[in-house]
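Regression check, pyridoxal-5'-phosphate case 410:
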Amino acid sequence: MSISKKDPKIAKLISAEEKYENETIDLIPSENYASLEVREALGSILSNKYSEGYPGARYYAGEIYVDQIEEIAKDRALKMFKLSPTKWHANVQPYSGSPANLAVYSSVLEPGDKIMGMKLDQGGHITHGLPISFPGRIFDFAFYGVDEKTEMLDYDEILKIAKKEKPKLIICGATAYSRTIDFKKFAEIAQKVNAYLLADISHIAGLVIGGAHPSPFPYADFVMSTTHKTLRGPRGALIICKKEFQKQIDRAVFPGLQGGPHDNQVAAKAVCFGEALDPDFKIYAKQIVKNAKALARELQGHGFKIVSNGTDNHLMLVDLRTLQITGKDAQLMLEEIGIICNKNTIPLDPEKPFIGSGIRIGTPALTTRGMKEKEMTIVAKLIAATLMKKEAKNKLEKEVVKLAKKFPLE
Ligand SMILES: *Cc1c(COP(=O)(O)O)cnc(C)c1O
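Current build output:
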């Protein structure tokens, strides 16, 4: 690495992180390993540019190549979801998922307007109405949750709440929900109460593109996704909206919330979208789900309780109450042997979010490394042995390193 001479301190830490990522098992469902090509674009000279505005209408000179790159990214974004540019518009400038959601809210709403989203302790994202967040302070949020018994979305109940609350915008999509989201039903609910529909597919975009989860198109008015989760690109986001909202969305992103787009990131998004258009991406997306189902089944076989009794997508929530350990404890115990996951609340959790009664685990990263169902059996066994204290820590740690090293990173 060329920075090792100029800045050995940072270079060392980056190398250490590289080794760490190679030797650990990453089960964080929002993480993934971006390709070398995506990272090449990110680290390219495009990082030098400033290009406020949009292709053909910039506020600076010197944008010949940047314009072409952004057009390609927009074009590929629509192609990934099989959308016609006569009906849909893509904005590829959002820095990340959080500002992109705020851009959607601010495009068609006024401060004080009501937004309905999923309860945060049942799977919703902090941008869907955390009271102390800025969106939480300027908009009036109402919430729906999951059914107590099935731990799944109950669309009749959501309609009831929507009729009572009369939101101007409904958000469907989550950060910790393991079941299929019925976008058509959400659109029917939104239509009945005359609300806009935003599908936040940050987590499942890769699955949608790969045909492993139903598409939010043509049902949602706005679709927002991060580009770094199952989509496996650079950190960032994109918004796709019905053509009629093009002006409002573009204005909400720039100059509404952002200044110059990160052109290196836009180029990396274009590379990532190109990868997602490759037929191999479908195989990847389907394998993510197969792996998640296998992992859930294996964990159940070891006696774990999985929220909603399984998964349809890339993640699952493990309810640890029967084991008498908290999510926080479990996260730490697993980290000690090199399995990285995060504590999470489960529906109607008696614990506070910082403790949590569950852990959230997902398979996008391991699937990128080439792991399949067979390896999920090993991962489940390692988790069970750790949390049920069946084997010595140092022995388990060695097994984790051995498994991880069999599937090296790019
Ligand atoms: C990750 C996520 C976001 C926000 O993404 P950041 O890039 O971390 O700001 C928004 N919505 C959902 C549902 C997410 O999972």
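Comparison notes: The chain is about 45% helix and 15% strand. Residues 279-301 form the longest helix (23 residues). No diff flagged against the previous build.
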